[in-house]
Amino acid sequence: MNKIMTMVLSVMIMITMLYTPVYASDNSTEQTYELSGIIAEDTVLDKTDGKYVITSDVSIKNGSTVTIKPGVTVEGNNFRIRVYGKIDINEANFNNVQLEADNTGSDPCTITMNKSTYIGGRLLYPTGYSAHVYLNLTNNRFYNLEGYSYIWYPADVAYITGNYFENCGALSIGSEEDVYVTNNTFYHMHALSNGDKYIIEDWAQYYSNLYVEKNSFYDDSLVLKLSSDGKMIAKNNFWNTTSSSSISSRISDGNTNLNLKETIEYEPFLTEPDPNSPNIEHLYNDGEITVQPTCLEDGEKTYTCLSCGETKTETIPALGHKWREDYTVDKEPSCTEVGSKSIHCSVCNAIKEGTTVEIPALGHAWSDPIFDFSSDGKTATATRICINNSIHKDTKDTTITSQVTKEPTCEENGETTYTAKVTFDGKEYSDTKKLVDIAAIGHKWGDVSYVWSDDNSKCTATRICQNDNSHKQAETVGTTSETTKATCETAGKTIYTANFGNEVFKTQNKTVKIEAIGHDFSDEWTIDREATCTENGIKSHHCSRCDAKSDVTEILAFGHSYVPGTIKATVTTDGKHFDKCERCGNVINLISIPMASNIGLSDTQYIWDGKVKTPTLYVNDSTGRNISTANYSFTEPSGRNNVGKYTYTISFRGDFSGTINQSFAIYPAKAAIKSIKAGKKSITVTAKKKPAKYGAKYMQIAYKLKGTNKWKYKTTTKNKKVVKKLKAKKYYYVKVRTYKKVGNETYYGAWSKQKRVKVK
User: Fold this and answer.
1) Is 326 exposed, middle or buried (CB count within 10 Å of its CB: 0-12, 13-18, 19+)?
2) 737 within 8 A of 721, measured Cβ to Cβ
3) What is the 3-state secondary structure (H, E, C) of 76-130?
C-alpha cells in the first residue's frame, strides 16, 4: 500500500511542476504556465488568463491524453511536443511549437487539431524514424511553418480538411491508408531548404489513395508532385487560373518524369474557389500610420502581412481645428506702426475668422550712445539705438582729444589715450580708447662672454644692454661629450660641446687629452683554436684590455675515439648498427637493420564450430627474412572458441622496438529454415536450431512482400518467431541469420536460402 501511494504522489508532483504559474513581469498581471518534461497521465490545459510557455521538450506518454481547451495560448520557444500518446487541440493558439509524432506502427499516437491558429515552428517534421499517427487536422490556420510536414504511414484514414496554409512548407505524404486533403487553401507557400518548391507530394501509396480535392492553390510554381511509389487523385481543385496547360505545368508525375508509372488526374477543375474552402486570411501586424491626418484632410494607416508581406490600408478621419484660448501675435508693433494678434489653431496654425485685434505703435526708446573709434583713435562716431526696434539708429561725429599715458622702453611700446565727446538732447556723453602706438626704442647689446664650469659639465653665455645695464641676457646649458678612449698604445681625448637655445649664442667646443695606458698581459693561457681529432690547436697569453697576444704556442691533435651504437628498427622504419667517435661524432662501419613490416596471422576469419582457433603468427622483416624470437615476444588471447574478436599483441626487443596487434574473428554459423507456416495475415518461421547452436544469441528473420525491395526484420532469442500484420493472400520471401553482440561490435552469420510463402 505504501509503495502504491508513493507512485501516485510522484505522478501528482510531476504534473504540478509541468505548468506551475509565474507572473510575466513585475508590471504585468498576465500569468505564464511553464510546460516541460514528461506528461504521464491525462491532462487538460484550460488556463485562458495567461499563456503556457514551453521551457524544454515535452513528451506525452503512451496511454496519456493532453486536451487543450478553446482560448489557450502555447508559446513553444521552438521546443518540441513529442506525442507518444494523444493530443487534442481545440480553438487554441500555438506559437513557435515543434509538434512531433512518435511511436511505431504497432502502437501509433493520435494528433487532432480543430479551429486553431498555428504560427511559426514546425508541424510533423521529419525526424528520421517512424511516426505512425492517427491524424485529423480540420479548420485551422497555419502561418510561417518551417521546413515541410512529413506524414509517414498514418495508422488509419487521415483528414487534412478546411485548413488555411500561408508561407508554409510542403505536405510530404506516404501511406497504406486513404488520406484526404480537401477544402484547404494554400497561399504564398515557401520553398524547401534545398530550393525545391511544391505544395503536396506523394512518395508512397500502397493499397490506398491520396484524395486532393476542392482545395484552392494560389501559387503559380509546382503544386503537386509524385515520387517513387506515389499516386494521387486531384480533381475539382481551384488553381487561380482557367488554363489547363498552366495547371499541367504545375504538376510533376509520369507525364514529366518517365521513371514514374502513375499520373495525376486533375480535370475537371474549379473556375472559382469552393465555398467551403477558407478565404485568404492574412496575418496582419498592428499597422503604422503612413499618412498623418490633418485638421482638414484624412490620414492613412497601413497594415502588413507578417507572412507574405502583402499590405492593406484604412482611412484615419481628419482631426478638425483645435483653437487656442490665448491670442497669438501675428505682427509685432513697431515704434511707428501698429501690430495685430488673433486666435490660432494649435495643430495647423490656421487663424480663426473674426478674431484679429490691432496692437498700438510703441514709439522710440533710445539707448545710451555707442562710440566707434577709427583704428588710429583720431576720429570717432557716437550712435544711439532704439530699444523697441534696433533698426532705428541716430549717429553723430564726436570731438577728439589725446594724451601720452605711458612712455616707451627698450622692450615695451608707449601708450596714447584718446577721448571722444558728443551731446544728445542736451546731455554730454564721452568714451576713451587706449592705443599702444609709440614704438619701443630697442636694445643695444654688447659682446657675448662664455664661461665653462670646472668639470666642463656646464657653459654660461652672457650679454648686457648698453642702453640699460639692468637689461641682461644669459643662458647656462649642460654640455654633451664625446670621448675617444686611450688604448694600450694610443692617447685618447674628450670633446665637450655646449648648444644654446638663444640663436644669438654660438655653439662652443672644448677638447681635453687622455694619455695611452700600456698593455696588461694575463698569466693564464687563452685557447685561440681548439685541437680536434685530426687538426692541431693554438694557445697564447692575451692583453686584458686590447686582446693583443704573446707566447703563441701549438696544441697537438688527439685522434678519434670510437664506441659502438645502435638505432632500433620499428614496424615503419629501418634501424642500424654503427661505430661513432665520442668526441667529433664521425660514424663508420654502418650496417642496416630492416624494419619489421611483414607481420600477420595465417587466418583472420573463422566460422563458429565450438573449437579453439589457433592461427599461425609470422613475424618477418621488410626483406622477407624471419625475425628471431630473441627480438620479440607475444601474448596469445584466451578462449578463442566463441564468437568475437581475438587479438595477439607482439612486443619487440633486442634490435627492434615497439608493439603491434594482429586480430582474427569468429562469426556465427550459417542458419537454415526448418519450416514456414502461413496463418491469417501472419507467418510462423522456425529455424532448424536455436541461436546458441550456431554460436549466437539472437535469430534475425527478414521478410518482404513479393514485388518490392523493402525488407523488414524481426528478432528473437529462440528458433521460432510469429510475424503479424501482413497482407492477406500475398506472397512473402523469408530468410534468417543469427548474430551476437560482443562489446560494441555485432557479429552476423550468413543468410540462409530464401523461401517463399503465401499468407492466408
Assistant:
1) exposed
2) no
3) CCCCEEEECCEEEEECCEEEEEEEEECCCCCCCEEEEEECCEEEEEEECCCCCCC
Q: Residue holding cell 522710440?
A: 364
Count of other CB atoms within 10 angstroms of residue 202 = 29
Percent composition of the chain: helix, strand, coil (DSSP 3-state, to 5):
5, 50, 50
Measured CA to CA, the distance from residue 698 to residue 668 in angstroms comes to 10
Angle at 207 between CA 205 and CA 208, to 5 degrees: 60
Is this structure's pTM higher than 0.85?
Answer: no
Which whole-number Å values give the CA distances from 353 to 292, 295, 341, 343, 664, in the listed order? 25, 16, 12, 8, 110
**If pLDDT is split at 50, 70 and 90, which confidence band does 388 have?**
confident
C-beta pairs of 710-718 under 8 Å, 24+ apart in sequence: 717/691, 718/690, 718/691
Contact criterion met (CB below 8 Å) for 623 and 594: yes
What is the average pLDDT across 545-568?
A: 87
Label residue 514 exposed, middle or buried (CB < 10 Å: 0-12, 13-18, 19+).
middle
Other C-beta atoms closer than 10 Å to the C-beta of 143 total 23
Residue that the C-alpha cell 516541460 belongs to: 36
DSSP state of 750: P
- Cβ burial of 102 (10 Å; 0-12, 13-18, 19+) is buried
DSSP 8-state secondary structure symbol assigned to residue 400: E
Q: Which residues pair with 680 in a beta bridge?
A: none
Distance CA 340, CA 359 (A): 5
| Cα maximum dimension of the chain | 145
- Average pLDDT of the chain? 89
DSSP tag of 692 = G
Q: How would you classify the pairing of strands 644-652 and 698-705? A: unpaired
**Region class of 355: left (phi > 0), else alpha (psi between -120 and 50), else beta:** alpha
Q: For residues 34 and 19, is the Cβ–Cβ distance under 8 A? A: yes
Tell me the pLDDT band of 29, cut-offs 50, 70 and 90. Answer: low
Identify the DSSP state of 386.
B
How many other C-beta atoms lie within 10 A of the C-beta of residue 23?
12
637 Cβ partners below 8 Å, 6+ apart? 646, 647, 648
d(CA 671, CA 693): 9
Query: With contact defined as beta carbons under 8 Å apart, do 212 and 239 qualify?
Result: no
Domains and CATH numbers, the chain: 1-156 (no CATH), 167-264 (no CATH), 323-359 (no CATH), 370-438 (no CATH), 449-514 (no CATH), 526-555 (no CATH), 560-667 (2.60.40), 673-758 (2.60.40.10)
What average pLDDT does the segment 400-417 reach?
87
Cell numbers that stand for 612 in this block: 579453439
Which range (10-14, 368-372, 604-608) has the least confidence? 10-14
> CA-CA distance, 594 to 81, in Å (whole number)?
65
Q: Select the highest-mean-pLDDT range: 231-245, 316-330, 410-424.
A: 231-245
* 25 C-beta neighbours (distance < 10 Å), count: 8
- Split at pLDDT 50, 70, 90, the class of 11 is very low
pLDDT per position as a tens digit, 465-495: 888 888 888 889 899 999 988 888 888 899 9
CA angle (7, 10, 14) in 5-degree steps:
140
**Which letter, b or e, does each residue of 528-545 get, where b requires 16 or more Cβ atoms within 10 Å of its Cβ?**
eeebeeeeebebbbbbee
- As a whole number, mean pLDDT of residues 227-255 equals 94
Q: Please check the confidence at residue 14 and state whether its pLDDT lies above 70.
A: no
Segment 505-533 mean pLDDT? 86
Question: Could you identify the residue written with the cell 514546425?
Answer: 122
Binning pLDDT at 50, 70 and 90, where does residue 660 land?
Answer: very high
